């Protein structure tokens, strides 16, 4: 289809387009929080009701992860992604048209149907990038979320600051979602599953191997995947613990002015984007040299995260807090690209959508516990202690899980390569028989 540099440029173009969609999706996820004051004022609802609305939307997306994962393994990932863009765009547009809260509640929950995009984005990316360069691609995709988080705050603040209704925030993200859906349909080409595996290079012209429901049990029998699911379940607890509490901590505990908090968050988000991009290169660098390279990087990152969050939260001065916060924000996301690439290193191409969906399912379940645990501990002791202990303890546990993965994953990678080698030989034999 593409040769030489053109092929390289095209596959990075695909990653860019998919990242744009993930960015918009993340912005849509957080935009409801940014307009919460306006919604409470207009619809006369409580904080508790708004909390139920946000949680319900996320629950819908979480529950549907396995369903979308299976669809992404069975049907065209391009068409499904376009369909998801339409769902997200249409439901978000209707959010803005709502005139009573019950309409907003129902349509907002429906928006959650379009949230499990990563299942398709990661597996499609894996088939465009060979194993030794997947980390970099995963780093770019993972960097989309913090940028989307920033957009989810900036868009409504800009709209409301300009004297417009909060509804235009939803119209903007809806329009962007529909636009990127068109872009995906026109620009992204479906590629046979397994095309990027060295053992199958040039031998796969179509999807020869199809997923069956009975195959899904392979995912739960893979020891490396189970370890990755476990770290995903616990590793996301600190993320929501920090995300939902850090602004309150800076404002009420450290007495930092609102304008300064905004600048700090902006710098931290930029640092997170940089961390994702750099870690993608490090992940590939280590993987080229040792099969457990991605697991080694993950182990170092999560143990270092546990230490850095402690040093940051207990900084003696605000200046030290800002500086250590930037370093911490840079390091925290660095395990992500390795995790996503590692999933692709150990499971058959026709099962990657489901495997990624299970990973995100467990991550979503884990993330739900963060704010609640922090709230209970903060009430009993302090918010500073709560954020620190919840983050440090869970990341130390994840570090242990990653350390176990160092010893387990080489065997699963070897087993995967043997499977791909056998398939390559079968395809060669089939081609010779046709001749």
Explain how this protein is built.
The chain has 21 helices and no strands. The relative contact order is 0.13. The model is unreliable at 1-6 (pLDDT under 50). The protein folds into 2 domains: 1-191, MFS general substrate transporter like domains (Growth Hormone, Chain: A, Up-down Bundle); 215-435, MFS general substrate transporter like domains (Growth Hormone, Chain: A, Up-down Bundle), CATH 1.20.1250. It has helices spanning 4-34, 36-43, 47-63, 65-74, 77-97, 101-111, 118-128, 134-142, 144-161, 167-187, 217-221, 223-235, 237-243, 246-253, 258-289, 293-313, 318-331, 336-346, 352-367, 370-380, 383-434. The chain is mainly α. The longest helix is centred in the last third of the chain and has 52 residues, at 383-434.
Instruction: Quote the beta fraction.
Output: under 5%
Q: How much helicity do the residues have? A: over 70%
Global mean pLDDT: 89
**Class of the largest domain, according to the CATH hierarchy?**
Mainly Alpha
Number of helices: 21
Give the overall silhouette: globular
From the 3D structure, determine the CATH topology of the largest domain: Growth Hormone, Chain: A
What is the CATH architecture descriptor of the largest domain? Up-down Bundle
Name the assembly state.
single chain
Unreliable stretches, pLDDT < 50, 5 or more residues?
Answer: 1-6
CATH superfamily label of the largest domain: MFS general substrate transporter like domains
Domain module tally: 2
Largest sheet: none
* Quantity of strands, as a count: 0
């Amino acid at each position: 289809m593409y040769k030489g540099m053109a092929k390289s440029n095209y596959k990075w173009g695909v990653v860019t387009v998919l990242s744009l969609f993930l960015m918009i999706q993340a912005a849509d996820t957080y935009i409801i929080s940014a307009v919460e004051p306006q919604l409470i004022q207009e619809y006369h609802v409580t904080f508790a009701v708004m909390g139920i609305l946000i949680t319900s939307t996320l629950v819908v997306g979480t529950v549907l992860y396995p369903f979308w994962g299976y669809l992404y393994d069975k049907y065209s990932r391009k068409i499904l992604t376009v369909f998801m863009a339409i769902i997200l765009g249409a439901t978000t547009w209707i959010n803005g048209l709502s005139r009573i809260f019950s309409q907003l509640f129902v349509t907002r929950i429906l928006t959650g149907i379009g949230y499990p995009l990563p299942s398709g984005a990661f597996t499609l990316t894996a088939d465009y990038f060979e194993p030794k360069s997947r980390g970099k691609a995963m780093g770019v995709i993972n960097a989309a979320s913090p940028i989307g988080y920033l957009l989810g705050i900036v868009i409504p603040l800009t709209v409301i600051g300009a004297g417009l209704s909060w509804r235009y925030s939803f119209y903007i993200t809806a329009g962007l979602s529909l636009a990127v859906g068109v872009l995906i349909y026109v620009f992204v080409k479906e590629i046979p599953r397994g095309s990027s595996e060295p053992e199958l290079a040039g031998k796969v012209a179509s999807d020869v191997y199809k997923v069956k429901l009975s195959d899904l049990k392979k995912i739960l029998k893979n020891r490396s995947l189970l370890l990755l699911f476990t770290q995903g379940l616990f590793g996301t607890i600190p993320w929501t613990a920090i995300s939902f509490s850090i602004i309150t901590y800076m404002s009420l505990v450290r007495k930092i002015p609102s304008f300064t908090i905004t600048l700090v968050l902006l710098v931290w988000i930029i640092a997170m984007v940089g961390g994702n991009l750099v870690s993608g290169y490090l992940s590939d660098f280590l993987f080229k040299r040792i099969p457990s390279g991605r697991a080694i990087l993950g182990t170092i990152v999560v143990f270092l995260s546990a230490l850095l969050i402690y040093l940051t939260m207990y900084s003696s001065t605000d200046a030290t807090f800002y500086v250590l916060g930037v370093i911490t924000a840079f390091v925290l996301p660095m395990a992500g690209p390795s995790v996503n690439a590692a999933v692709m290193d150990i499971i058959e191409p026709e099962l990657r959508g489901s495997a990624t969906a299970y990973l995100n399912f467990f991550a979503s379940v884990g993330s739900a516990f963060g704010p609640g645990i922090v709230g209970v501990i903060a009430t009993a002791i302090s918010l500073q202690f709560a954020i620190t202990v919840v983050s440090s303890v869970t990341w130390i546990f994840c570090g242990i899980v990653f350390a176990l993965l160092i010893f387990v994953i080489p065997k699963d990678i070897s087993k995967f390569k043997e499977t791909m080698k056998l398939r390559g030989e079968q395809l060669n034999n089939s081609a010779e028989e046709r001749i």
